[in-house]
Amino acid sequence: MKKKFKFGLAAQIFLGLILGVAVGAIWFGNPAIETYLKPVGDLFLRLIKMIVIPIVVSSLVVGVAGAGSGKKVGRLGFRTILYFEIITTFAILLGLVLANVFQPGHGVHYSSGEKTDISQYVETEKEASTKTVAETFLHIVPTNFFQSLAEGDLLAIICFTVFFALGISAIGEKGKPVLAFFEATSQAMFHVVNLVMKFAPLGVFALIGVTVSKFGFGSLVSLGKLVILVYIALAVFLIIVFGIVGKMAGINIFKFLAYMKDELLLAYSTSSSETVLPRVMEKMEKIGCPKGIVSFVIPIGYTFNLDGSVLYQAIAALFLAQASGIDLSIGQQITLVLVLMVTSKGMAAVPGTSFVVLLATLGTIGVPAEGLAFIAGVDRIMDMARTVVNLTGNALAAVVMSKWEGEYDAQKGEAVLNNREPIDMKMSG
Fold first, then answer.
1. Of 157, 165, 218, 360, which sits 20 to 30 A from 227 (CA to CA)?
2. pLDDT per residue over 171-221, tens digit each?
3. Burial 58-79 (b: 16+ CB within 10 A, else e)
């Protein structure tokens, strides 16, 4: 008996992606495309942002309050940050090695392509770079929780929510009504996710259509070597590095990627991990990770564990140095690693993260920042791929931390990945 093809969410998003590329290519340079399609894409992104904070807060309260002591939360936090730092360091080193071997910037001249205005990133970098490391960490603790909610400051929100959840847990029976409220809120918000995701294919169509009509494929010619190297590097990291990490955690990376296909395709199409945060959290619970660990690790990873972004930044920094005719010494490249390790965390919440981080980094190794205007035109194409790696890294981190804490249900995970039991995924259709 032949298996009936189901036109599920992944197929719908892929169709939206293809149609968006076609429309953008046909009407390349036509401002009407951006006029009519951009509001549709922006509407979808706003719908997602609308539900992210309520889901993070409610899930984290339920997870932490139901999981236990402050000592356990502190241990999980330390282990999570340690793991993130190790993985992102591997990403930076891989980027540097590949950029040194393949030399993507040799023979490239800034004048050979159209430059894009990056003044907005320069202003953001100036504002962000004035903060010291101490100020960056102090910023994690909010002075006004409601202001943090309004600004969407995820780390500050997580900090307050963890303390609040520990307080609920400490008061015992009196805290149960509050916990029940957040449990109901969490369930209701995941239902809202189901409704919002029905709009995803149209949102993807609009976002891709605008991107292709604005930048086209011509900008890829002069920067093709950089784009190809970034994609190869990200693929190597995704398959080999995450493959090794997955094997250590008892997860087959190919089965894991297949399980996450809907979310990966949506993240690739929109260049935003945020669009799939609620779905990723729910899927990680279904694969055998406890709610408390999932709701803690994944949101923090969105700031501290940007593997794809730091890998790209390492390659882009060397690309710009090579294109400028600057030969970076081993010492300068070690400096680059150290600076990226810090700046990629300290500026993760600001707009245009990758460009802002590169602006802050290039000055420390003596590379002129004007080259960023040259690669800005193809940044969206590379951003799509690095978002996939960022997302995979954070999802996999939930499994690793669950196993490290001795709370991962390996039997459940294996059953789900091998499709040996039905998965109650209302969002999949």
1. 360
2. 888 888 988 898 898 888 878 888 888 888 888 888 888 877 876 665 556
3. bbbbbbbbbbeeeeebeebeee
Name the nearest CA neighbour of 310 among 130, 95, 141, 133: 95
SS (H, E, C) 134-200: HHHHHCCCCCCHHHHHHHCCHHHHHHHHHHHHHHHHHCHHHHHHHHHHHHHHHHHHHHHHHHHHCCH
260, 395 Cβ separation under 8 angstroms: yes
Return the structure tokens found at 330: 């081993």
pTM of the model: 0.78
Residue 2 lies in a domain: no
Q: Domain count of the chain?
A: 1
- Up-side HSE of residue 21: CA atoms within 13 Å toward CB? 9
**Secondary structure in 3-state letters for 360-409:** HHHHHHCCCHHHHHHHHHHHHHHHHHHHHHHHHHHHHHHHHHHHHCCCCC
Residues 6+ apart with CB under 8 A from 415: 421
In the chain, what is the greatest distance between 2 CA atoms, to the nearest angstrom? 69
The parent domain of residue 111 ranges over 11-428
Chain segment 2-43, per-residue pLDDT in tens: 445 466 777 888 888 888 888 888 887 778 888 888 888 888
Phi, psi of 168 (to 5 degrees): -60, -45
**Can you give the CATH number for the domain in which 76 is found?**
1.10.3860.10
Rounded to whole angstroms, the Cα distance separating 82 from 349 reads: 20
Count H helices and E strands in the chain, helices first. 22, 0
Res 352: pLDDT: 52
Q: Report the candidate in 384, 388, 382, 386 with the shortest Cα–Cα distance to residue 257.
A: 388
Domain-located, residue 16:
yes
When pLDDT is averaged across residues 88-96 and rounded to a whole number, the result is 92
- Within a domain: 380: yes
The span from the CA of 242 to the CA of 256, in Å, is 10
